[in-house]
Amino acid sequence: MIGRIVIGQHTVCIDLKREALVAHLFGQLIPAAHDDDAPLISVEKPITSLRRGSETRLVVDGSDNLAEAGHFDPSLVKAIARGHVWFDELVGGRAESIAQIAKRECVTDRYVSQMIEFAFVTPAVIEAVLDGRQVPDLTLRELMQK
């Protein structure tokens, strides 16, 4: 369906194959042509490049509600979940210590301690992360400080 994607410094341009798009939208009721010279639909949008730790994220300008597009961050969700599970294990007596959890999970004590801090992130921030409404440049480090 995608003919070409060009990422520029301030824009992204996506060329869609018209026949493939129509076939997809109408459930393959219309046979898609496999002609590489078929007309394309070009969509161009302004973008902003954001650095998040070691990754770079491209954000399409004008998309205020990230949740509608489903842009939740799995690493943030995983950190919050781990923090809650490990904290509950300690409080409930299912784990004797942070060292025991670290050994079981093959991670360091420090990592477990850092993840447990996510059990204390405010409910509003957790809800935003789970709904994909967090700011696009939110990192795990910044989340630990909230």
Can you characterise this structure?
About 5% of the residues have low confidence. Strands 1-2-3-4 form a 4-stranded antiparallel beta sheet. The protein has 7 helices and 4 strands. It has 146 residues and is α+β, with helices and mostly antiparallel strands. The longest helix is centred in the middle third of the chain and has 19 residues. α3 crosses α5 and α4 packs across α5.
Q: How is the topology of this model organized?
A:
Elements: E1 2-7, E2 11-17, H1 18-25, E3 40-52, E4 55-60, H2 66-69, H3 74-92, H4 98-105, H5 109-116, H6 123-131, H7 140-144
User: What share of the residues lie within helices?
Assistant: 40-55%
Which stretches are poorly predicted, pLDDT < 50 over at least 5 residues? 64-70
Widest beta sheet: strand line-up: 1-2-3-4
Order of helices and strands: EEHEEHHHHHH
Q: Report the principal-axis shape.
A: elongated
SS element count, helices: 7
Largest sheet: 4 strands, antiparallel
Radius of gyration over all CA atoms, rounded:
22 Å
Strand content: 15-25%
What do the pLDDT scores average to? 77
In the residues, how many domains can be counted? 2
Q: What is the number of strand segments?
A: 4
Amino- and carboxy-terminal Cα gap: 42 Å
Main structural class? alpha+beta
